[in-house]
Amino acid sequence: MIWPFSQSKGFAPGRYLLSLNAIAITPNISSSSNVSDRLLVLLHGWGANAQNVAGLIEAINMIAIPFKGLLPDAPFNHPMVPGGKQWYGFPPNYDFRRPHDFAAQPDLIESRQQLKNWMESLPAQTGIPLEKTIMGGFSQGGAMTLDVGPQLPLAAMLILSSYSHAPIPTCVTSRPVLVIHGRQDPVVPLAKALDTKAQLERQQLPVTYREFDMGHEVSLDALSVASQFCQDL
């Protein structure tokens, strides 16, 4: 079941008012004992919105013990996609192969602070501590996870067809990380995933790295691995 996330504790219908709008996914099953006690937060990519990643949680829930999910919208409208959002803008004709100082961009600075504040507010809103919260994202959402997630005592992180837009901060607590990427990704080069893996391993984090024969997407095989990763927690 998909609802706008309420500011009151839990997942009742309503609109979340603190800093980021979000939708909540509550598994539609009769027994709460069949729902994981962990929360899964997924961030969408550039030009998408929260609704676009709802299917990822629903697919994961079909394989693993179902999770409660929260999907925030990025704070900025995409300049070219009606209804699309962005965490920050890219320079013209950017191809991920040349350096760019994203960390200096005012929109990234604003998104980082809003997302961190929003994440830190979740335990009071949901009753689920950050230590039992899995944070992940696709593409630009994964980059935001690598930016903000290390500052939080998370249970785990999911990095899906993504990249790091700046050096990954030192994680405040150890946590397992799943990095998934497509060998034929025409948008984010595979080298970006390998760099992410190397940065995380230098922190001595338990990293699971998997490549798939796919493009800039999350294939069914990749979803199966993500589901098993969440289940193993």
UniProtKB/TrEMBL annotation:
Q: Name one GO molecular function term.
A: hydrolase activity
- What UniProt keywords apply to this chain's record, in alphabetical order? Hydrolase
InterPro entries for the chain: AB_hydrolase_fold, LYPA1-2/EST-like, PLipase/COase/thioEstase
The residues covered by the Phospholipase/carboxylesterase/thioesterase domain are 28-231
Q: Which Gene3D superfamilies match?
A: alpha/beta hydrolase (3.40.50.1820)
Q: Does the keyword Iron-sulfur apply?
A: no
Q: Which Pfam families match?
A: Abhydrolase_2 (PF02230)
Q: Which residues form the signal peptide?
A: none
Question: What does the similarity note say?
Answer: Belongs to the AB hydrolase superfamily. AB hydrolase 2 family.
**Name of the protein described by the UniProt record:** Phospholipase/carboxylesterase
